[in-house]
Amino acid sequence: MPATSHIEKHFTASESVRDVVIGMADGLTVPFALAAGLSAAVQSTDVIVTAGLAEVVAGAIAMGLGGYLAARTDAEHYAAEESRENYEIENIRAREIKEVETLFRGYGLEGNALQNVVNAIASDRKRWIDFMMRFELGLERPDPKRAPVSAATIGGSYIVGGLIPLIPYMLVRDIATALQISIIATGLALLCFGAIKGQFTGVNKLRSALQTLLVGGLAAGAAYWLAHLFG
Amino acid sequence: MPATSHIEKHFTASESVRDVVIGMADGLTVPFALAAGLSAAVQSTDVIVTAGLAEVVAGAIAMGLGGYLAARTDAEHYAAEESRENYEIENIRAREIKEVETLFRGYGLEGNALQNVVNAIASDRKRWIDFMMRFELGLERPDPKRAPVSAATIGGSYIVGGLIPLIPYMLVRDIATALQISIIATGLALLCFGAIKGQFTGVNKLRSALQTLLVGGLAAGAAYWLAHLFG
Fold first, then answer.
1. What is the ipTM of this complex?
2. What's this model's pTM, rounded to 2 decimal places?
C-alpha cells in the first residue's frame, strides 16, 4: 500500500473548497429565490434584474468581507491564546504541568510513564506551547495569507452562483418565461453543485444533490409566496 | 485563584453565539444593501418592501437550512472517520501504532518513555480511537442535537437583522426619507452588533463595531451604485 493512501482516505474539504461552497450555496439560492419572488409581484424584468444584481453585489461584498474578517479574527484569536499560554507557562508553570498530566491521565498513563511524557513535552517551551494550543484548546495555527484569498473566493463564488438565476431575466422579457428558464437552469446548477459538494464532504452525492435542490426550492417557494402576498 | 478562572480566560464564542453572528451579520447587511440599492432604481416603497421581505425569507431559509445541513454533515463526517479509525486499528494495527509513535516523537519522546505512552493509549480501543480522532484528525465529537437548533438560530437572527433596515420603508412612503431612516437605524444596529461580536470573539470592541459598519456600508454603497446604473 503506498504511503499516501492513508492521507487520501482521510481527505476532507480543503479551506478553498469550503469557501467556494459557502459562497456558491448562498449565491445559487438567495438571488434565485429573490428573482422568483419578485416574478410574483412586479410587471417588469428590469426591476427583477436590478434587484437581483443589487443583491448579488451586496451579498458578495457582505459574505466576502465577512469571510475576510472571520479569517483575521481567527488569526488574532490564535495569537492572543498563544501569548496567554506563553505567559502561563512562564508564570503558573506548576498549573500548566498539571494540565498536561490531567490530559495524559485521561488516556490511562500513570506514575513514571506519565512523568516521562510530561517532562518531555515541558522540556521545550516552543513545543509545549504548540502542544497546549493543539491539544488543550483544539486550535490550529491559521495561515496568515488566508484572509484575502478566502474573501475573494467566497465573494467570487457568490457572484458566479448568483448570475445563473439572473441571466434568463436579462435575456427574456416575458417574466413567466424567464422564471421558467431560471428555475430549470438554477435547478440543474443546484443539483450539480450539491453532487460536487457531496464528493468533497464525503456525503452521498445523490443525497447531497437532492438536499441542495430542496434548500433552493424551499427558499424560492417561500420568497415567491411572500412576494405574492405583498405584491 | 478559583478553579474556573482558567476556563473563563480561554472563553471563546459558544456555538450559539457563533450562529447568531452568522445570521445577523448577513441579515443586517444584505437586505439593507438591497433596499438602499432599490431606492436608487424604483419609484415605490412597495417594491422595496416586497423585494426586501422576499430576500429576508429566502436568506433565512437558505442560511438556516444551510446551517442545518452543515451541522448534519459534520456529524456524519465524524461518524465515518470514527468507524474508519476503528477499522484501521482492527486491521492495520501496526501502522496505527506507528502513527501514535510519530506524533509523540514530534514532542521529543524517545525509547522507553515513547513505548510507555504508546502502549497506554493503545491498551484501550475506545480511548485509542478518541485519541486518533482528536489528535491525528483534529475532530471533536459534534453534538447530535445541534443541527435543528443551529438552523433556527441562524435563520431567526437573519430575520431579526433583516427587518431592521426594512421597517422604515414599511412606515414611510417617501423613498428618500425611508432610506435616510433605514441608514441611521441600520448603521446604529451594525455598530452595536459589531461591538457585541467583538466582545465575544475577543477583538477590540470599537474596532469590531467600525469594521462591521464598514462592511454594511460598502455592501450598501455598491448595491446603490449598481442599481443606479441599471435603474
1. 0.79
2. 0.81
